[in-house]
Amino acid sequence: MLSHLKTLDLSHNKLVSDSLPLFIDMRSLTELNLSYNQLTMLPVCTDCKNLTHLLLGFNKINNMENDYFLTLTKLSLLNLKNNKISEVSSNVGDLINLAILDLSDNELTDVPCELSSLFHLKSLFLGGNPIKTVRNDILQDSKRIISHIKTSRLDYHCQNVDGGGMSSQESTSEINIDKYKLDRTKTLTLCKVINIPESVYMIAKEAQVEQADLSYNRLHVVNSKLFDITSIRELDLSHNLIQNLPPDLLNLRHLVYMNLENNKLETIDIDFNFGHLRELNLSSNKFQQIPKCIFHLDNLEILILNNNDIEEINQPEKLVKMQKLTVLDLSNNNIRKIPYELGLAQQLHHLNLVGNCFKYPRQDILQKGTPFLLSYLRDKLPST
């Protein structure tokens, strides 16, 4: 029977590591919550290969074994808040799908360099650690600390890209593509490019590329040839100058991840018919409301909309109906009022609303975590 279990909540008990059961033969498990216990070690869950959410906050864990994450490659949320961790596992980079990592209130003395391998990381919490190498105001801002890590990574990345990276001064005709490597890795990576020749897209199409990273360029318009590569499952167009999304984008019907962070987008004028999309990053653009097309993404799990110009949470009842949405980041916008209906979105594991204009809920409510916040909002709903 346990082999079919998908969610297991053992939080708020007095469990200790020595008596904790081994989570074996639980291959269907996607969510494991062991928060608020007395664990000193990470739980044994190497068989839980479909695990996406692991909640271990408020324990006494003091060590992260180096090979612990080798089989947990589907993990998207890892909460280790308020433990005794002083070092991060060297194999944390194996968490290729990790989007949210909470290591706040531990005993870290430096920003772990291992985190630079987490290419999909969107929310990182390191506050409350005795870190002296980075200013405290940066540590308290998830976006800024990730940017700090990415900047360090980018210096290396742009010198070693597999697809033939080049500086913005070089001619695009000088791009050299290693066809063999492209065919083997299924990954196209180019940075610091103003224009990308059509021949690059043609070669990538022949190789049936599944990951396309065109971040940190100066692209104003995306060449339609990119959307002929229908095998793409992960698309990163972040840190460009894109103002509009073309209808041809819909050709990428297999997308599971799309990053449009830090562009010039104000609206999305196309229907997002991406039935497989699980993660969408629209942070640091110019949206004034949540794009309505997002409400139709039935399989979306992670929605990042921080650092925009959003003034209200429009149509909260539609957010409530997005039953697979577990992460919603609306921090650092201009939201003046939080609709109480949002409290009905009990599927949310992480709701970030800090850095907005509203007075209520107060900051002390926000700091108590998502479950408490959602309960607070529900309690404010008028009784029927």
TrEMBL record:
Q: Which UniProt keywords apply?
A: Leucine-rich repeat, Repeat, Signal
Check the record and name the PROSITE patterns matching this protein.
Answer: LRR
Any one GO cellular component localisation term in the record = plasma membrane
Q: Specify the superkingdom.
A: Eukaryota
- Protein known as: Leucine-rich repeat-containing protein 40-like isoform X1
Organism of derivation? Diaphorina citri (Asian citrus psyllid)
Gene name for this UniProt entry: LOC103506610
